[in-house]
Amino acid sequence: MVDKLNRFKELLAEVFDLNAAAALLGWDEQTYMPKGGAEERGEALATLSRLAHIRFTSDEVGALIDDLKPMVAQLDPDSDDARLVRVVERQYRKLVKVPERWVSEFARATSVAHHAWIEARGRKDFKHFQPYLEKNVELRREYAGFFAPYQHVYDPLLDDHEPGLTTAEVQAIFDQLRPQQVALIREIAARPPVDDSFLRKPYPEQPQWDFGVEVITRFGFDWNRGRQDKSAHPFTTSFGLGDVRITTRFEEHLGTAALLSTMHEGGHALYDQGYAPSLRRTPLASGASYAVHESQSRLWENLVGRSHEFWEHFYPRFQAIFSTYLGNVSLEQFYRAINKVEPSLIRVNADEATYNLHIMLRMELEIALMEGSLSVADLPEAWNERMRDYLGLTPPDVALGVLQDVHWSGGSIGYFPTYALGNLISVQLWEKAQADIPDLRDQIRQGRFDGLLGWLRENVHRHGAKFEPQELVERATGSKIDPQPYLRYLRNKFGQIYGLLA
Amino acid sequence: MVDKLNRFKELLAEVFDLNAAAALLGWDEQTYMPKGGAEERGEALATLSRLAHIRFTSDEVGALIDDLKPMVAQLDPDSDDARLVRVVERQYRKLVKVPERWVSEFARATSVAHHAWIEARGRKDFKHFQPYLEKNVELRREYAGFFAPYQHVYDPLLDDHEPGLTTAEVQAIFDQLRPQQVALIREIAARPPVDDSFLRKPYPEQPQWDFGVEVITRFGFDWNRGRQDKSAHPFTTSFGLGDVRITTRFEEHLGTAALLSTMHEGGHALYDQGYAPSLRRTPLASGASYAVHESQSRLWENLVGRSHEFWEHFYPRFQAIFSTYLGNVSLEQFYRAINKVEPSLIRVNADEATYNLHIMLRMELEIALMEGSLSVADLPEAWNERMRDYLGLTPPDVALGVLQDVHWSGGSIGYFPTYALGNLISVQLWEKAQADIPDLRDQIRQGRFDGLLGWLRENVHRHGAKFEPQELVERATGSKIDPQPYLRYLRNKFGQIYGLLA
């Protein structure tokens, strides 16, 4: 039996290595690869993914799962080995249901759809993208069919990102969230706007980079096991516990963009650096889910990085470094500016109070497309209608509307909700960490983050993907994913900033 | 049959992709990888190499070779397809003779030997390395045995680097070379030494980098299909025709080191960028051999980059940029300095006139070790004896003597001769290119290299690994590998510089 477990781990380690290699090829593609390498890079990535898939879904892995199940039934159900077999079985049973033929067709269709989307967005012409999106939706409906029977056609897609979570659960959460976020935004809109003009300046790049590096070093980012580079779109990637990389970018018209991006990706990276060493080279050396991963980035970016306490510590230095623009700006003015709420058209630029509404809109549309109750042809109008309802805005064109995100062009459906769920989880963890560490805010005021990081390591990071997201959140906070802490947080924070408390 | 050829190419393309991925992992390891990534990187590289090896040596590849041979017998023997089957068959027949058991043992032994070598070199203690080198030699003798019967026990090792070349052929070449190079060096040693003190200065790094970039851009390096980074040891690597990368390094005490390194690696890279597109993603998209590859780096570094014509064009700008040290140095003084001949202990720092002697010494010792006529215990003394005979020097310690090179610690035997053969081939090509392009030297005086690059593309690069080195050299120059052009070149060039012509 020990031999079988070792063989099982050996096969999984090979798959891990192939995926790690693919991740490095992806990192390089977005950081240093010369243009001419694109075609061969695509081919190499396809080969690595295919070989990893073939090995993971091999009959040998299936037979080992069957052989190992009786053995691990004897173990502590929370032990690494018991969880490994359980998690791999779940992934395996799902992956073997997807025919090779579909995988190839999906890869081809989404590749051309991605190029069509770039073209359509540039031309602001939804019709150009429509047939490709129709094909992607059709393929995703077929995909869901492989997992029938299901409670809801969206469930299999959601489950790819949030193991064990159902559409009904997420809808129930969002139904609590939506009216209260809409109401809050309306209240804020009635108040005088916050001035953030001093942030919208071309801050010099090197000091921005240096400040971001200083901050995440203080957070606990281990530079011996990671690095930061520049890329067009910031991301985090890792090739094992010893090499976790982030990227950042500068925005000419927003001097705090690189710092907030570095804190966000730094949050993802702290998670990836924090898996227990016993999980290395297994599929458990990974986040519990997309939402849990996003909870880590959001926690460090927003709950820490946009907090008053954080800036009480860092603002004097930040102000001195960027004195050209901040010389006459007080801490209070600065704090209000980086927390400015303003309904806007573009999701990735949205503030904490409006962000989730961008997500709910997208999930509702995805569900309607999957159910067949909305046609792709009617998508732009459905998009604009919800933008008006939730944010009071009408996109002037499709590039600023329905064509703004890359996800659908790549056939990714079921991903968006994880962003909002990550926000909710981040505040649940934050509340519990404060309860467990009464002087947490004082620690942050002193620029100390070891208490918070230690708490996250113990309650979230070290477990990797051993627990499904609902189980992990419940173990860490005492309750499943819950929108109430987030709503309390928004109301307190923005109530204070916008004077709504009365 | 067409289906079988396609399947054959598909399998080879997968192997190519795995090797390309491994090459990127290797590049990253030496350029950007954080220290903490080393262990997992080693594991991922081992997995990729093993999977590539398994796929290449699979029964399916063997069966396809057997099926395809009758078909390609009908084709033009120089056609891509005929050569592909032939080259792959050769590699396949060799690789399948090596048992998996030996591959694993060799990997383990050389890994520990490499660490022992670092330790031994640091401590200047050959005895510490001795048992590990004994093991490596024993494994290499066993390896040679897999290919018995052979003419000489060194043949299978040499053949791994120079397909088709025999030990007897190389010995015959070196026997012509050795006495004449030794005699030349003695004559030079009797002349007044050249002053190169103005090169041995801390030239600022950025202008060195920029100048190197400018020069290889003029050579024809395609930045759309390549890049340059920094690393501790300069190297060239590629992941396909569209992505060929070089690295360089700065040396504090030699202001021209980075430029010459960039020209050297640039020469390798021009070769890798020049394979015919029809060879892409096949084993033919590669150099014909290590020696032919080295001929390209040496040609651009030495025959072009240390030529009088080259500096007639570039020296005025170079002098202006580094005027602190070169302000009062004439072109003639500079030309003599970068061509200074001085017997020295370290191979990698050797000049054109002494370099081959370092190589011949090593090859003779390798042959004696493989034959068993020299024991590892007696190696340091044998080394020192030859150093006295060939270069008139005695290493003060083993770090500056027998332990200076990394090769043996990694079990690499049969590699060294390729450096000297590369030098010889470079001058053969150079003579032929001059014969074919009568105004070649004038073109270089004008900073124009398209004539030379075009000639190399046509006669060397585009063929990739279609032809074995002797065949390629003969096709390009009219004769097989021949030491006489190199000896003529040395005698002319250094005769002039040192006034030996009389």
Features:
21 helices; Neurolysin, domain 3; homodimer; mainly alpha; 502 residues; three-stranded mixed beta sheet
Which fold name corresponds to the CATH topology of chain A?
Neurolysin, domain 3
| Oligomeric state | homodimer
N- to C-terminal distance of chain A: 66 Å
Tell me the strand percentage band of chain A. Answer: under 5%
Record field, number of beta strands of chain A = 3
Largest sheet of chain A: 3 strands, mixed
Number of separate structural domains of chain A = 1
Helix and strand composition category of chain A: mainly alpha
Element-by-element helix/strand order of chain A:
HHHHHHHHHEEEHHHHHHHHHHHH
Mean pLDDT of chain A: 96
Low-confidence stretches of chain A: none
Q: So what's the overall shape of chain A?
A: globular
Tell me what you see in this structure:
The structure is a homodimer of 502-residue chains. Chain A contains 21 helices and three strands. Chain A has a single domain, classed as Neurolysin, domain 3. In chain A, helix 12 packs across helix 14 and helix 17 crosses helix 21. Chain A is an all-alpha fold and 502 residues long. The mean pLDDT of chain A is 96. At the A-B interface, helix 1, helix 2 and strand 1 of A face helix 1, helix 2 and strand 1 of B.
Task: Please sum up the structure shown.
The structure is a homodimer of 502-residue chains. In chain A, 63% of the residues lie in helices and 3% in strands.
